[in-house]
Structure formats: C-alpha cells, structure tokens
What does this fold into?
Amino acid sequence: MEESIDSAHDDLSSPKQTRRRKATAIANVLNTEYDIVKEILEDTMGCRLSYESEDETSLKTKEWDLYWNDLTVTPELLTKLRPYQKVNHFPGMEALYRKNLLARNLNRMRRMYPEEYDFFPSSWVLPVEWGEFRRQFNGKNKTFIVKPEAGSQGKGIFLTRHWANIDPEEHYVVQRYLGNPYLIDDLKFDLRIYVLVYGCDPYRIFIHKEGLARFATEEYTHPKPHNLKNTYIPVSYTHLRAHETSLHLVCRLLLEKKKKKKK
It folds into this structure.
C-alpha cells in the first residue's frame, strides 16, 4: 500500500518536482480511535495526518490519499473516490465481522456445501431461529455459548444449558459449545493469523509471518452446572482479564508445568 500512496499525488506535481522529492501522502484518520494506527501512518509510513470529514468537498479538493475507518465505509463515499484514493474496507465487510450475519452466511454455505463447511459448530441466530433452537433441548445435557450479535471483546458472552436463561427477544448468536477443545498445557486459547486482502480483482492476499495467541487464565475443565459462570475458563479475551491483579498467572502456570515435566 505504501508504494501506491507515495505516487498518489503525482498528478498534482510537475514531472520536475516529482523527480526532486516524493510527495507526502495524506492519511485521513478522522474516524479511527486507535493511536497505534496514527503513529504507524505518521512515523513509519511518513504520512501527513488529516481530519477532514468525508463530505463531498474533501473529495473534490483531493485532501487525502488514504482513509482509515474503524467502521463500515459508506457506499456514498465509495462512489465518490478518486482513482488514487484508498480505503481500508471493502463494501459489505459487515457480512463477515458481525456475528449474526457471519453465522447466517456460514449456515447458508453449509446447506449448499455440507462437506466443505463442517468446520464450525451448529449455530442459531436469535430471535429469528428461536423455535429451531428450542428443539435442541431434548433432555440431554447440551452446553451452548451465547454471544451478543454485534458485541466484541467478550462482552455479554455466557454459557448455558437451559433455554430459559436466554431472553427470546434479545439478539444473540448461539452455538453448541465444544466440550473437548484443543488445549496448550491445559489452557484454552485462540490463535489469530493476520491476513491482508490487497484486492479482489486480481485476488491478492498477504499473510503476516507472525500471529497472536491469547490464553485463558484458568485451566480448562469440562462445563458443568457449578462452573458455567466462570468466564475465565471458556474464553481468552484480554478485556475480561483487565481487572485481574495477577496478570502473570498464565506465565506462572506454564513455567510450573514445564518444571514438572523436567522432573
């Protein structure tokens, strides 16, 4: 992306000026709250930061080259983009990052291609699929994980074995809870791989060499009535661990287990 940004203002400078020095790219960061994004754009990529609104004037006067937005980019903005201007979202991204839309799309693909789409647990979008979800309670001790459809950072997630614990009018995504997950030293974890989709036509994808693993702070135990409310066992969101006084618990557990293995 840096190469494209450097050449964004070539049409604003004469050939002689372009040869003398590169034009400074302008990054619009009005709608991002993350300081790290601004620091990288300014300090690492050498961009000049702009806080122009996404109205028609800012587009006509060519006030920015890159528009970094934490939210969905509006169709109105996309239709007004100049050839050199870049945005950090594709249209329709909410179909992937909103839990309810993602679950609906995955279920649709599973019906069409059952063998290829068997990698995720059974999912129900509430309240639309409340009746079908209720039929899952047939006397067996099934555990379900309930998530707000548009939540993040683990907020509002809980486990349950009874449909009566769920408000049928609330908007949730409910999934069968996997009772035998992959563990590292008896700790549940998630693994993130960072992928950059550079373009769709032609299709270009870059995978970062490094990723991120986040660990739960307590050893995993199978869900039972007495531990369903313990949010530190089933999930690994850093937000839920923010109030812990001993955040080094994971490291200590791992070191203790290694010592035991050596003995």
